Automatic annotation (TrEMBL):
Residues 1-29 form the signal peptide. It is a single-pass membrane protein. The lineage of its organism: Eukaryota, Viridiplantae, Streptophyta, Embryophyta, Tracheophyta. GO terms for molecular function: sulfotransferase activity. Keywords: Glycoprotein, Membrane, Signal, Transferase, Transmembrane, Transmembrane helix. It comes from Zea mays. Residues 328-353 are annotated as: Disordered. PANTHER family: HEPARAN SULFATE 6-O-SULFOTRANSFERASE 3, HEPARAN-SULFATE 6-O-SULFOTRANSFERASE. It is found in: Membrane. Its main location: membrane. GO terms for cellular component: membrane. This is Protein-tyrosine sulfotransferase. InterPro entries: Heparan_SO4-6-sulfoTrfase, P-loop_NTPase.
Length: 353
């Protein structure tokens, strides 16, 4: 297990890249560089609190599953965490930033797309963090596909106005958490939805395009092509370095006020990204567990040993037979975050209550 953990660890670090958007000269004739360097270094120094090495491998009172979108985290949530923790132990509304209440007395599990800065709301020294990483290219493809998939559900409506209106009505009535409440989908889905309707309006509802050879990533008259999507400022803001920013608490969903300045400095001066990457690596190093989407089976086994066994032993249920094989899908292309229950056909409900 230790060797397996190490192997996964090394690959996890390799996956964590910082995507430099443009190559700037190392020190441009200032251009705010010095200021930015100070900002980023100052943040990095303040972020490098360390835990004793021996300590990080034992499960603390609270488990924070930092769910990076499109890494298969929902499978872990439903197949493992939901089985290990009772409903009462799950912190209420943990995916839902607006209503999330970590002060709930008995809760032991937080699962969220919120970034690492959420730990500032949690009892840090009593919290263990776990996450899953995925090859960034696959993660970006998957993000595109999921944006299209969820947005396309709204096309049952005659026009954008009616789609928006219906959503608001359903959302206020239902108590379920919708994809539209959750970062990053609350930005990515409406953006894609608007674009889908515009393309449909432009081609006219009755002119159904049916070219013989269709490249799913380039169907201009129906969907924003992949290359447009990934080069858009919105994608730059929340997808490209999304995983790295989530682990460092620097997403535009951060609880840390200074996140925006640090993020903007790093985008303006990409070489400062190295500093962010170091912080991210340290964070990963201090987590109880880091899984890899690509190494599904090994990751799941490791999860059972590192997390599952400890949760059970702490809850006094020492019945897990670790030699028994876990039922694991050996699909070479595991389906990420499978279709969920839907409300009224167009809402993607993440958590039933
Ligand atoms: C959108 O569709 C609804 C329902 O069919 C219709 O009442 C409304 O006039 C439409 N709005 C626009 C701007 O076309
Ligand atoms: C986060 O990024 C999206 C996409 O660029 C943007 O629409 C949104 O306003 C940003 N949110 C914050 C809080 O900055």
């Amino acid at each position: 297990m230790a060797r397996a953990a190490l192997r996964l660890g090394v690959r996890a670090l390799a996956l964590l890249v910082f995507v430099s958007v443009a190559l700037l000269p190392l020190v441009s004739s200032d251009d705010g560089y010095r200021h930015c360097e100070g900002v980023v270094r100052g943040w990095a120094d303040a972020s490098s609190g360390r835990v004793k090495d021996g300590d990080k491998l034992s499960l603390k009172d609270l488990l924070f599953f930092l769910h990076i979108p499109r890494t298969g985290g929902r499978t872990y949530f439903h197949c493992f965490l939901k089985k290990l923790y009772t409903n009462a132990q799950e912190c209420p509304r943990s995916y839902d930033k607006l209503r999330f209440d970590p002060s709930h007395p008995d809760c032991k599990l937080v699962v969220s797309h919120d970034d690492y800065s959420l730990t500032s709301k949690l009892p840090r020294e009593r919290t263990s963090v776990v996450t899953i990483l995925r090859n960034p290219v696959d993660r970006v493809f998957s993000t595109y596909e999921f944006s299209v998939e969820v947005a396309a559900r709204f096309l049952v409506h005659p026009n954008l106005t009616s789609a928006k209106l219906m959503t608001t009505r359903v959302l206020t009535k239902s108590r379920a958490v919708s994809t539209l409440d959750i970062w990053p989908w609350k930005y990515l889905v409406p953006w894609m939805r608007e674009d889908l309707f515009a393309r449909r309006d432009a081609r006219g509802v009755y002119k159904v395009h049916s070219s013989k050879k269709v490249n799913a990533y380039d169907v201009d008259d129906m969907v924003m092509p992949l290359h447009r999507y990934i080069n858009d400022p919105v994608a730059h803001e929340i997808i490209h370095n999304g995983a790295t920013f989530q682990i460092t608490g620097l997403t535009n969903n951060s609880y840390f006020d200074g996140a925006h300045e640090v993020r903007h400095c790093v985008r303006k001066h990409p070489d400062l990204g190295r500093i962010v990457l170091e912080v991210a690596k340290n964070r990963l190093d201090q987590m109880l567990y880091v899984g890899l989407t690509e190494d599904h089976e090994e990751s799941a086994r490791l999860f059972a040993h590192m997390v599952g066994a400890q949760v059970l032993s702490q809850s006094g249920t020492l019945t897990l037979d670790l030699k028994e094989d876990l039922p694991i899908e050996t699909d070479s292309h595991p389906s990420m975050e499978p279709e969920d229950e839907e409300t009224n056909g167009h809402l993607h409900t993440w958590l039933a209550e």
